[in-house]
Specification:
Helix content is 51%, strand content 13%. By secondary structure, the chain is α/β, with parallel strands linked by helices. Helix 3 packs antiparallel against helix 4 and helix 5 crosses helix 7. Bound molecules: adenosine-5'-triphosphate and magnesium ion. Magnesium ion binds next to helix 1.
């Protein structure tokens, strides 16, 4: 693994398995003696996070633009911690980051494909001064598969143990998946779509983790400047 600390992000629709994959990568890196921290966004313990949770519970509905600004603010509030960790030699693995904001809020826009893409580009500019990840892995599954997994989830206090407004709607999850794929096209230099399906089922988590590791080593090779011939 590279000597420079890594900043890796896991993304995907609700219930696709991104937290599972983030935790597996953290364990892998730690087992290989690389100091690594896991961070989750949104940070529901902050004032901004509590505002976001009110929206997710459906108590407050804000426009995609206002929500995007709120999600960006939440990350800017967490940026100094990421910078500190990276500068002190820790790898940082993050569960949801810029791509979530791009995918979920652009999926809420009632507009053409081009208008949704313009929205993604606007969010990218809004979040451009955040620490930028070395690689973003989008865990890609069909919404019905992820939906099934969501029903099994319990105990998220910030939602009062209910599904959030986005999770409830399978049609919306399909649009979010499309927007993640649009994000991956726009950010193709460091966004990797990981197919996490095996036929009509979710692939075993270990198989998905091994695809993540292959994509990660590819990302690191691409990031390395090529050495001029003969040196
Ligand atoms: N590859 C897999 N195959 C089968 N089940 C899985 C797989 N990966 C994760 N799961 C299970 O699916 C559920 C959702 O996984 P997880 O919490 O990792 O998803 P998530 O994308 O982080 O969801 P959320 O968006 O709600 O945070 C969990 O019960 C988890 O154990
Ligand atoms: Mg999760």
């Amino acid at each position: 693994m590279a000597s420079k600390p890594l900043f890796i992000v896991f993304e995907g629709i609700d219930g696709c398995g991104k937290s599972t994959q983030a935790e597996l990568l953290v364990s892998f890196l730690q087992k290989n003696k690389h100091s690594t921290r896991l961070i989750h966004f949104p940070n529901y313990t902050s004032t901004t996070g509590r505002q976001i949770a009110r929206h997710l519970r459906g108590e407050k509905i804000a426009s995609p633009e206002r929500m995007a600004v709120l999600y960006a603010k939440d990350k800017y509030e967490g940026a100094s911690e990421i910078r500190k960790l990276l500068s002190t030699g820790f790898n940082v693995v993050v569960d949801r980051y810029t791509a979530s904001n791009c995918a979920y809020q652009s999926a809420r826009i009632k507009g053409t494909k081009a208008q949704k893409e313009a929205f993604i580009n606007w969010v990218l500019r809004l979040e451009a001064l955040l620490p930028q990840p070395d690689a973003t892995f989008i865990i890609d599954v069909n919404p019905p598969l992820a939906f099934q997994k969501n029903l099994e989830k319990r105990g998220r206090k910030y939602l009062k143990n209910k599904a959030d407004v986005y999770e409830k709607d399978i049609g919306f999850q399909k649009q979010v998946r499309d927007q993640y794929l649009a994000y991956a096209k726009i950010c193709k230099a460091n966004a990797f779509v990981i197919n996490a399906m095996a036929g009509k089922k979710m692939a075993p988590k270990e198989a998905v983790a091994s695809k993540v590791l292959s994509a990660l080593s590819k990302a690191l090779r691409l990031a390395k400047p090529t050495r001029p011939k003969g040196k």
